[in-house]
Write a structure and sequence with these properties.
Number of domains: 2
Strand content: 5-15%
Strand order of the largest sheet: 1-2-3
CATH class of the largest domain: Mainly Alpha
Distance between the termini: 67 Å
CATH superfamily of the largest domain: Citrate Synthase, domain 1
Radius of gyration: 24 Å
Number of strands: 6
Structural class: mainly alpha
CATH topology of the largest domain: Citrate Synthase, domain 1
Shape: globular
Bound molecules: carboxymethyl coenzyme *A
Order of helices and strands: EEEEEEHHHHHHHHHHHHHHHHH
Helix content: 40-55%
Length: 431
């Protein structure tokens, strides 16, 4: 059980006027709006300036908890390690969306509903076909999710719980189909329809890799690895893309448009794409003999050790530990990626080196995930799609929480205006 709010106060003295104000502290936060009472005559009320929200909470949330110093990640209070070990992705998606693990009947119903919605409208194929042969699959995924709002115009009535639930089910069910078709498009291969006899992860693999065989059969160890990767990527509280979904969703737009905004945010290299850079780095290092020189270059500031460091985690990213274990299982099936030896040795050296220790730089989720994706035969452009598919459940859990939160308003930050003030228009011939 989560504890109720704890309330205390903060006394602020405005040295411009000598006035003191008492501001409530609730759950370790003050409300920025409470600072509005602080002002000087003729001036604007006091406000905070916080680019990138580095110390501003934009919501109260009960979905995901992170303790970056301790390396803890929990969905609805359940440690990520236990979920990765025991759960399936759809069970975790249910947990994120509903707050509790499903019982067996609830899980059966949920899996049945998702499985029933895996097909997309046939016109979606035409939309996909319209993309250039080398279109980036993330751009294709974003556009097709956005286009879904036109296929399901009733989605705008999401305040009706039934309508809302249907859109959530549809989106979670259809993103693997759209992601797989984007991949097939780039390969010039025919799109594969969903096979509803298969599990969520198996079906995704079938839509990606099936050729002329009547039934696609994936190695269960690879299916398990994909499930684990999906679980690890399902949510990560108020990151850039979750914030984009909430911000766009706060205008009251339909959930497809809000999630499409999240996909756009994830597409950016600062958010979704470091695992590709890790692969490039490992290839460049080539052999373990070159690691010493490489580390010296990093310490001299020539480049970064990609896949290391995190804004929130100042300890081993708990997801990286789980992925590292999964690499062994995947390589048992696919054969070892020779880059693994370089990655393992690099990690060992970095974790002992004072430069990294002092700065609390540890492997993050991207350090090993690219190696697995490559072993599963994904080209680097697909890596971010593999992130977006499971993150859809997290985005929708965040969106759903937002639309049910009476504290929330349309996102509309303030600015500190630093430009010119009122001046007369200058005719062209006088400029
Ligand atoms: N290699 C070498 N030095 C580093 C690294 C690194 N990977 N990361 C941080 N540092 C140094 C940085 O130069 C700085 O040193 P100094 O204090 O001497 O100036 C110090 O550590 C603190 O770094 P910072 O840049 O202030 O930290 P940040 O919180 O702003 O940046 C980060 C976090 C993830 C952007 C950064 O660690 C980084 O660029 N890492 C490599 C890229 C990467 O792996 N990104 C994936 C992040 S996990 C995916 C996700 O959750 O979205």
């Amino acid at each position: 059980m989560t504890e109720g709010p704890t309330t205390d106060t903060l006394t602020v003295r405005d040295n411009r006027t000598g006035t003191e104000y008492e501001i409530a502290i609730t759950d370790g936060h003050i409300r920025a709006a409470d600072l509005k009472q602080i002002s000087i005559e003729g001036g604007d009320p006091l406000a905070t300036y916080d680019p990138g929200f580095v110390n501003t909470a934009a919501c109260r949330s009960a979905v995901t908890y992170i303790d970056g110093d301790a390396g803890v990640l929990e969905y609805r209070g359940y440690p990520i390690e236990q979920l990765a070990e025991n759960s399936t992705y759809l069970e975790v998606a249910y947990l994120l969306l509903n707050g509790e693990l499903p019982n067996s009947a609830q899980l059966d119903t949920w899996v049945h509903e998702v499985t029933n919605h895996t097909f997309v409208h046939e016109n979606m194929k035409n939309l996909m076909h319209a993309f250039r042969y080398n279109a980036h699959p993330m751009g294709m995924l974003q556009s097709s999710v956005s286009a879904m709002s036109t296929f399901y115009p009733e989605a705008i009535n999401f305040t009706d719980p039934e309508v809302r639930q249907l859109q959530i089910t549809r989106m979670i069910a259809k993103v693997p189909t759209l992601g797989a078709w984007a991949f097939r498009h780039s390969q010039g291969k025919p799109y594969v329809y969903p096979d509803n006899d298969l599990s969520y992860a198996e079906n995704f693999l079938a839509m990606l890799f099936k050729m002329s065989e009547p039934k696609y059969e994936a190695d269960p160890r690879l299916v398990k690895a994909l499930e684990v990767l999906f679980i690890l990527h399902a949510d990560h509280e108020q990151n850039c893309s979750a914030n984009a979904v909430r911000s766009v969703g706060s205008s009251g737009v339909d959930p497809y448009s809000a999630v499409a905004a999240g996909i756009g945010a994830l597409y950016g290299p600062l958010h979704g794409g470091a695992n590709e850079a890790v692969l490039r780095m490992l290839r460049r290092i080539k052999t373990t003999d070159n690691i010493g020189d490489f580390i010296e270059g990093v310490k001299a500031g020539k480049e970064k050790l990609m896949g290391f460091g995190h804004r929130v985690y100042k300890n081993y990213d708990p997801r990286a530990k789980i992925i590292k274990k999964a690499t062994d299982e995947v390589f048992e099936v696919t054969g070892k990626n020779p880059l693994l030896d370089i990655a393992t040795e690099l990690e060992k050296i970095a974790l002992e080196d004072e430069y990294f220790v002092k700065r609390k730089l540890y492997p993050n989720v991207d350090f090993y995930s690219g190696l697995i994706y490559e072993a599963l035969q994904f080209p680097p452009e697909m890596f971010t799609v593999l992130f977006a598919i499971p993150r859809t459940s997290g985005w929708l859990a965040q969106w759903q929480e937002m639309v049910g939160d009476s504290d929330q308003k349309i996102a509309r930050p303030k600015q500190v205006y630093i430009g010119e003030r009122t001046r007369d228009y200058v005719p062209m011939n006088q400029r």
